[in-house]
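Lab meeting notes turned into a lecture example. A postdoc, R.K., suggested we walk through two folding results consecutively so the class can see how the record format repeats. The first protein's sequence and structure tokens come next.
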Amino acid sequence: MSPEKTSKRQERRAQIQRRQQQQRLIVIGLIVLGAALVVLAMVWPQLNPPDTITVTPAALPNPDGLSLGDANATVVIDVFEDFQCPACQLFTERIETLVIQNLVAPGKARYVFHNYPFLDGDGAGNGGESDRAANASMCANEQGKFWEMHHTIYANWNGENQGAFSAPRLQAMAKSIGLDMDAFNACFDANKYEEDIQADFELGKNMGVSGTPTVFVNGERVGQPGKIATYEEIAQAVEQALNK
């Protein structure tokens, strides 16, 4: 074989080897990039807490802790929710507003919120996002701003167990609604209202709650299990209770 042919074959082999090495580097780079994106997706919610998002409910009727409306109303609407629950967010945005506006504000019923953190906990403060959000809401309630925190938590929801309700994010939400952060942090870190949350959780279980949101009017369940109670169903139940 002539030296010229040998040289060409060697050059060809070298070119193939360079291309293979480049392809390997590209594959490795894509794997590293993919892994980095996965890590970023997991840690981004903690690194990027809400800064100035403030959702303040307008003209809420007679807020008193976790309830709204006339304390002497003969009809009581009890609602059990998990702040992580997507159906609860939907209920809050589309149905709760109508209930408060048309049934609570006119004095027909009193509206009572109950924490039911079942998606990643049992109400016993196990550190999951559902329990942490419930804890934060109760610490806000200690400063008379439960409903502001309630609205802000739902406004910052981004899915179940996605880091939306990490401690730094919940603390940022508390700051955004003007809470005394020293008092809030002390309350939040101590999980001060664990027993109250657990009591609501047990109450819900005893009333037959198995998912959220679940609505009762004067102790009677509204709507079908597994489905969100509609405004019309709640309004009808309230009217029936008023006419008894």
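The second example is placed directly after the first for contrast:
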Amino acid sequence: MDEKGVSPVIGVILMVAATIVIAAVVMGMLGGFGPPKKTYVVAVSASRTAGGNVTVTFEGGPDASLVTSFSGTITNISDQTNETITLDATVGSTFVSNETYKTNDAHVVVSATFKDGSSQVVLNTYV
């Protein structure tokens, strides 16, 4: 009896099975097959006053009613000091820095937390 073709066929089947298992493990490590997280649309702006202070304002946006809080920092690029941003979750609320900054010397990063518990960066800019 000539069974030379059995071994290559089994080898190919095992290689395909191993490839599928490896792909499943990689997908599991990368977050699985779940739906993507929702990206919220919220507007927050930052500007410098004539005196060099930074003003951060919650402008609103389609998902403004879903914001529960904001947190953030203003980093002085020159000396690497940070100032904590406190901003209410109501449209139009404003934060004005205590520090003065040179042009493009303030790195402003603001994150919003939403009613579903998720958070995302809504502003990352230099002023």
